[in-house]
Design a protein that fits this description.
Layout lengths: L1 E3 L23 E5 L6 E6 L3 H20 L1 H18 L1 H12 L3 H26 L14 E9 L2 E5 L7 H13 L2 E5 L6 H12 L6 E3 L4 H10 L2 E5 L2 H14 L3 E4 L4 E5 L5 H13 L9 E7 H16 L3 E3 L14 H16 L3 E4 L13 E4 L6 H4 L6 E7 L2 H8 L4 E2 L1 E5 L3 H8 L6 E4 L12 E2 L2 E2 L2 E2 L2 E2 L3 H4 L2 E9 L15 H15 L8 H9 L3
Parallel strand pairs: 1-12, 5-6, 5-8, 6-7, 8-9, 10-11, 10-17, 11-15, 14-15, 17-18
Antiparallel strand pairs: 2-3, 4-23, 9-21, 13-14, 16-20, 19-22
Helix pairs in contact: 1-7, 2-4, 2-5, 3-4, 4-5, 9-10, 16-17
Bound molecules: adenosine-5'-diphosphate.
Length: about 525
């Protein structure tokens, strides 16, 4: 079912220009509601100079932000969390206006954001506490060892358009909790929610350690030229360019890139649950989730039953543009490029012999595309080999578990996967054979709501990971090693010049005794040298 209502959301500085993205004024970018085509805002297309100036300002305030420590930062981060709760309805409306999402999908962003902030605000103190590892050998016990986590001063966060608020928050706020200052470069397609975040940060009276630079790829490149660490989420093609740019500057980076996540449905699965879960996994946010289910492999004995139930579920989805009152399950796609990719994948599949059991065409408003189930697809089709990032679920029949695993692993990507089975042990065993960064058994996206787990892609799906408990803030820190003497200071250490050969040989023998095994511990040549050696 497809329907549209008047587009929600504020029209900020809207103008009558008809350009798709770049406004006639070269220094600004128009933002459109992709469900209606209406212009909903205009933002600056920031230059390299403007980005450099923002980073200079962040560098001024960052030391104090680091200095107040995790407990000081917690107060402000939780205040910001309150601001999110107080403004959820308004923020969801703005977010809906720049994405064409269904209201329920739009409401998820602010609440999810608040949850991530709460987790890192409350735990950063524990995660960033100095560590005092045990010395590796008795000889090293003369020192107290400390590992200290000190933030990269300015972290650049570059985000895509699928979750205009949650994506920035997922990465920017752990970095803030770590004590870094953050410059966020949101997608030029959906910059309005990010600007709201910056406005909220100022409104709660937090120091100016979080700012936003709007613009397209050139603005993103300028961010990389100025910051000390880059966290990027987006396409694999852009991720590769970012890795090269970071390598030129010798700065670290973490990339979350494309995916083509498989779902494996085994004959012993609860087919009703699998059909509902995979419908959600493929259609949530119109399929524009990095972890979306994009390929389904079903064991032959349950194939017909699964396909019938999946098709019925997908057909029943209500699609449209709702206002403030949630009415629909699926909205529009974020932009026209995305719709063109989805249409091409579907058209190419059908031309090569696939069938659309439901959907298969544009939904009749804005960029929206109908939720689609494809069957009779094979592993050469673009709907299986390329990331679609839209509301399509291609389904393939497999003979057995081994074929499902082989086909699931036959991809350039490796973000996540799901396994549907009545036997949890079997699911866990299969998970260990899949070349992906996360596996959900009898569920989708569950890892996304578990900040204690790392979320990272394998293969061309990424480098590094976000979250993972303590790692989620430590990644934004440089590790510093500090040694402090335990023994009272002597005038001169054993190894210091001028050398006393017998003493040095004794020390070397002791080092060897501590580190080696068996007879090699004795270091006989050294002992012999010691006997006949000079003093
Ligand atoms: P999409 O084309 O689907 O929007 P991208 O991966 O190209 O996905 O974009 C994700 C983010 O990366 C956006 O914020 C975009 O402006 C930014 N970006 C694009 N090109 C570059 C680049 N060369 N350097 C830095 N950021 C870039």
């Amino acid at each position: 079912m497809t329907n549209t209502e008047s587009a929600p959301g504020p029209t900020r500085k809207s103008s009558a220009r008809t350009a798709t993205t770049k406004a006639a004024d070269p220094s600004s970018i128009q933002v459109r509601n992709p469900g209606t085509g209406e212009i909903v805002g205009t933002v600056p297309d920031e230059t390299a100079d403007s980005v450099a100036a923002k980073v200079r300002e962040l560098r001024l305030y960052q030391p104090e932000w680091e200095e107040i420590g995790p407990e000081g930062r917690k107060v402000l981060l939780l205040k910001f969390q309150d601001w999110l709760f107080d403004n959820t309805d308004r923020l969801a409306t703005i977010l809906q206006s720049e994405t064409g999402k269904a209201r329920v999908d739009a409401l998820i962003d602010p609440s999810f954001s608040a949850d991530v902030i709460g987790y890192y605000a409350r735990r950063a103190g524990e995660f960033l506490a100095d560590e005092h590892p045990t010395p590796h050998s008795p000889l090293a016990k003369v020192k107290r060892l400390s590992t200290v986590y000190r933030p990269y001063p300015v972290v650049g966060v570059i985000t895509p358009w699928n979750f205009p608020m949650a994506m920035p928050v997922m990465d920017a706020f752990p970095a803030l909790a770590a004590g870094a200052a953050v410059l966020l470069k949101p997608s030029e397609v959906t910059p309005l929610s990010a600007l709201e975040l910056a406005a909220g940060w100022a409104e709660i009276g937090a120091p100016p350690v979080f700012s936003v630079a709007t613009g397209a790829g050139a603005t993103g490149a300028a961010v990389i030229d100025n910051v000390d660490y880059v966290q990027f989420t987006g396409s694999t093609a852009t991720g590769r360019k970012i890795a090269v740019a970071c390598a030129e500057r010798m700065i670290p980076y973490s990339l979350e890139l494309g995916g083509k996540d498989p779902a494996i449905v085994l004959a012993d699965a609860d087919i009703d649950r699998a059909a509902h879960g995979i419908t959600f996994g493929g259609m949530f946010n119109s399929g524009q989730v990095c972890l979306s289910v994009e390929r389904v492999y079903v064991e032959a004995p349950v194939y017909d039953e699964f396909v019938a139930k999946l098709t019925a579920n997908v057909k029943a989805l209500r699609q449209g543009l709702d206002g403030r009152v949630p009415k629909y399950d699926v909205g529009a796609l974020a932009n026209e490029n995305q719709t063109a990719i989805v249409q091409r994948h579907v058209d190419e599949a059908i031309a090569a012999g696939a069938k659309a059991l439901t959907g298969g065409k544009r939904a009749g408003f804005g960029t929206a595309f109908e939720p689609t189930v494809l069957v009779d697809v094979d592993h050469t089709m673009s709907c299986i080999t390329e990331e679609t990032f839209g509301p399509t679920l291609p389904v393939i029949k497999v003979a057995d578990e081994a074929e499902a695993i082989r086909l699931a692993n036959d991809s350039i990507y490796g973000l996540s996967a799901s396994v549907w089975t009545g036997d949890k042990e079997r699911g866990a065993r299969i998970a260990r054979q899949l070349d992906v960064g996360a596996v959900n058994i009898n569920d989708v996206f569950a890892n996304l709501f578990s900040y204690a787990l790392p979320m990272g892609g394998w293969r061309l799906s990424g480098v590094g990971a976000r979250w993972g408990g303590a790692e989620g803030v430590r990644k934004y820190c440089r590790q510093q090693a500090i040694t402090t003497p335990i023994l009272p200071p002597a005038q001169k250490e054993l190894f210091w010049q001028p050398y006393s050969v017998p003493k040095i040989l004794l020390a070397v023998a002791a080092m060897r005794a501590a580190g080696a095994r068996g007879i090699r511990r004795l270091d006989l040549p050294a002992v012999l040298k010691l006997r006949g050696g000079n003093k």
